[in-house]
Amino acid sequence: MKSRIVNCYDYKSLEVPEDLGRWHIPDSEIEEELLALAKDYSGEEEVEGEIGSGDCVRCICVKSSVESWEGRTVLLYPGRKLPGAEGAEEAVLGKKRGEEFDCSIKGLSLTLRVEKAVRIHVMQVGNELTGKLGIPGVKTVEDYYRFYHEQHDKERREKACMLIARYWLEEMSKRSEFDIDEEEKKKWCDDRARIMYEGLLAAGHDMKKTQDGEILTEEEALKRAAEGEEIYFIPYLMYCYFSEKDGFVLTEEGFVKEVERIAKERGEKTEDLMKQADITMFRQTKYQEHTYHLLMADAEKYLEV
User: Fold this and answer.
1) What is the pLDDT of residue 258?
2) Is residue 261 packed enough to be buried (19+ CB in 10 Å), middle (13-18) or exposed (0-12)?
3) Distance CA 174, CA 248 (A)
4) Helix, strand or coil, per DSSP, at residue 50
5) Is this model's pTM higher than 0.90 or not?
């Protein structure tokens, strides 16, 4: 490419913000996860014996001082002391399904029959919960903490390294010196816009129709898409710089081999995949991956211990 980095700013001279290096999983996160699991394992069961505080009781009114109430369903929640139903909540305690009892609700004298009672089972965070999870080697809460770290620590470290690498790239894009060939840049953006336009059109999305209902000509749609690609040109130059400096170069031959490999994995024909592929887009993806790989390796030393 004619466009290039003339002087790449030394990212190692930058002071990495402390918060970017934080990756340790706090106990509070694991506690929240266990609480959520406890809710999932909580449930309800029908009460066969005596009704207790905290149960939900469905009754049928068999007799009332107001005739229209007879046959109505009445729900009681003993222990909640709902206004006007306190006496009925007390009266239903100790009763069983099918038994009748007298009570009053908001001044009405009623005789109710217990039809059904449900007891909410609230699972507490503890070894009973972790033992029910069915995770190999996890029987206690302490085991779950270990398991959670095994599952997520590596991912969190990588995420922190990626954030540091992104910070370095953003700063370098501001502080480095570039020699930009404007004609080359325009062609790069136009080519990407055309690839995007045709790809989306093949997928059933017409870029000429905007989200706000505006209808563009093909030329206008391509121009707008090309303008949107400009912000990716400098990052692309940086990906090329770091990759090529490390000896990682994707040639036409390498591109074809990579497409052949992907086609084989997908069970597709190489010639069909080649029609969809573009070496510029493909090279950017590979160079970006390689650049992040390099910078993330350096970022490891900036992570909290």
Assistant:
1) 81
2) exposed
3) 24
4) coil
5) no
